[in-house]
């Protein structure tokens, strides 16, 4: 079938009152970015719908790109034809033939905004329905819950027909809720947290703490590959690598092991907050889940959180591990996340971390460290790169290594 456009129905946008125009233009911006190779496709948006005029581009390729985009409730490939009864009839038959299989039922549902058109909406239903019934032997009509619903809309400029509706990713367009810094480890939880933040319209930048030579290049590549998995929702993501070796060594040297974890996390949070400030973010996102490990008890969170008043968004805080894994599998980050490359926290994990750290002790131990100087040096070593959907990190090096041997 030669579809001429794709019609997009907005998700929650419809209820957002005066922000609506902003949300629609953000959605158009994201769609444009994600379709950048399809130069012929033109975007037209109005209050209720968005139209992607295909100008000959393959509709299936375009539809694949729309599936992960947040802010879309559903979309349909549509054919625009002249307002001629025979052309409308024939187009409807061809379109249904394309998707019909033995046993599938149909119904026609129409709207007519051009009141001068020869058929009113009842006529359209009857005439087009009869044409399909006669044109496709064996097809049955079903008024309630048909398998195929043929939508016919007759407007001033043309008639539009469609018979396929694909559900979109829902949520809000990325960027419409501002920007947050995602603390991204190489684990299961933080990529899921990032995905959920994106779903509610937050643009994210990934911040990763890295402690060479204790953590390998592969741990860093794994974090970057996890970031690649989040790009279909947004396009490119800025990935910020923070050198963390000196801070971890200093903590290990000067602080009793039961407080390593709390103080390490406080440094991570301070640094992420400074990066956020520099890069005009509004919040921090992490993958903490209540009670999962020592750093994720309420007592620990209180002691760690004390370094900032910036909102910390914890999208998976109340989820069980199985629930987080279910999302990780759906967004295809799980297999990668369970690859066994050591993270900086695993390497410096104390034998018995405090689950109820005391703030006065934390402050006392921290006073043994040159906090400001350590932070300043880490900030001076930040590396920032854009991660794109076509990037591959782990496999690429593995292949290069294979070539060497
Ligand atoms: N190396 C790191 N770089 C950036 N953020 C980190 C790093 N390590 C931990 N974090 C942040 O702290 C959160 C808690 O980390 P922790 O390792 O305690 O728990 P986790 O539940 O295993 O998380 P994850 O599965 O995301 O690694 C992570 O979800 C992440 O947001």
TrEMBL record:
Task: Give the Gene Ontology MF terms in alphabetical order.
Answer: ATP binding; CCA tRNA nucleotidyltransferase activity; tRNA binding; tRNA-uracil-4 sulfurtransferase activity
The record's GO CC annotations read: cytosol
Subcellular location(s) of the protein:
Cytoplasm
Q: What EC numbers are recorded for this enzyme?
A: 2.8.1.4
* Positions of the THUMP domain: 60-165
Give me the segments passing through the membrane. none
Q: In which pathway does it act?
A: Cofactor biosynthesis; thiamine diphosphate biosynthesis
The superkingdom listed in its UniProt entry is Bacteria
Q: Does the keyword tRNA-binding apply?
A: yes
Q: What is its main location?
A: cytoplasm
Q: Which reaction does it catalyse?
A: [ThiS sulfur-carrier protein]-C-terminal Gly-Gly-AMP + S-sulfanyl-L-cysteinyl-[cysteine desulfurase] + AH2 = [ThiS sulfur-carrier protein]-C-terminal-Gly-aminoethanethioate + L-cysteinyl-[cysteine desulfurase] + A + AMP + 2 H(+); [ThiI sulfur-carrier protein]-S-sulfanyl-L-cysteine + a uridine in tRNA + 2 reduced [2Fe-2S]-[ferredoxin] + ATP + H(+) = [ThiI sulfur-carrier protein]-L-cysteine + a 4-thiouridine in tRNA + 2 oxidized [2Fe-2S]-[ferredoxin] + AMP + diphosphate
Question: In which residues is ATP bound?
Answer: 183-184, 208-209, 265, 287, 296
Which keywords fit this entry according to its UniProt record?
A: ATP-binding, Cytoplasm, Nucleotide-binding, RNA-binding, Thiamine biosynthesis, Transferase, tRNA-binding
HAMAP family the UniProt entry points to: ThiI
Of which family is this protein a member? Belongs to the ThiI family.
NCBIfam families, sorted: tRNA uracil 4-sulfurtransferase ThiI (TIGR00342)
* Its biological purpose: Catalyzes the ATP-dependent transfer of a sulfur to tRNA to produce 4-thiouridine in position 8 of tRNAs, which functions as a near-UV photosensor. Also catalyzes the transfer of sulfur to the sulfur carrier protein ThiS, forming ThiS-thiocarboxylate. This is a step in the synthesis of thiazole, in the thiamine biosynthesis pathway. The sulfur is donated as persulfide by IscS.
Protein known as = Probable tRNA sulfurtransferase
Q: What is the lineage of its organism?
A: Bacteria, Bacillati, Bacillota, Bacilli, Lactobacillales
What's the name of its gene? thiI
């Amino acid at each position: 079938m030669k579809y001429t456009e794709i019609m997009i129905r907005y998700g929650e946008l419809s209820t957002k009152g005066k922000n609506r125009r902003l949300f629609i233009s953000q959605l158009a911006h994201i769609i444009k970015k994600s379709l950048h190779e399809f130069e012929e496709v033109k975007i037209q948006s109005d209050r209720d719908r968005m139209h992607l005029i295909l100008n000959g581009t393959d509709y299936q390729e375009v539809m694949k790109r729309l599936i992960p985009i947040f802010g879309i409730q559903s979309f349909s490939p549509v054919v625009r034809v002249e307002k001629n009864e025979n052309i409308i009839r024939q187009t409807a038959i061809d379109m249904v033939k394309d998707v019909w299989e033995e046993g599938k039922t149909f119904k026609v549902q129409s709207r007519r905004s051009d009141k001068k058109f020869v058929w009113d909406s009842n006529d359209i239903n009857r005439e087009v329905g009869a044409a399909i019934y006669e044109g496709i032997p064996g097809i049955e009509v079903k008024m309630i819950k048909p398998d195929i619903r043929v939508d016919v809309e007759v407007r001033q400029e043309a008639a539009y027909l469609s018979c396929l509706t694909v559900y979109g990713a829902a949520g809000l367009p990325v960027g419409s809720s501002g920007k947050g810094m995602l603390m991204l480890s190489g684990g299961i939880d933080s990529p899921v947290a990032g995905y959920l933040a994106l779903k509610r319209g937050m643009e994210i930048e990934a911040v990763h703490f890295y402690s060479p030579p204790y953590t390998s290049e592969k741990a860093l590549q794994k974090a970057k590959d996890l970031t690649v998995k989040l790009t279909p929702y947004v396009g490119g993501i800025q990935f910020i690598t923070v050198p963390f070796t000196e801070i971890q060594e200093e903590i290990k040297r000067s602080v009793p092991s039961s407080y390593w974890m709390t103080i390490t996390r406080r440094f991570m949070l301070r640094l992420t907050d400074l990066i956020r400030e520099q890069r005009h973010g509004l919040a921090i996102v992490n993958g903490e889940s209540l009670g999962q490990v020592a750093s994720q008890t309420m007592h620990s969170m209180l002691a760690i959180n004390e370094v900032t008043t910036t909102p910390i968004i914890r999208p998976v805080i109340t989820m069980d591990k199985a629930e987080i894994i279910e999302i990780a599998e759906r967004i295809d980050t799980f297999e990668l996340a369970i690859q066994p490359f050591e993270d900086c926290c695993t390497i410096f994990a104390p034998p018995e971390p405090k689950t109820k750290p005391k703030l006065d002790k934390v402050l006392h131990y921290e006073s043994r460290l040159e906090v400001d100087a350590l932070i300043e040096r880490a900030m001076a070593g930040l590396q920032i790169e854009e991660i794109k959907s076509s990037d591959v990190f782990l496999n690429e090096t593995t292949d290069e290594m294979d070539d060497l041997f």
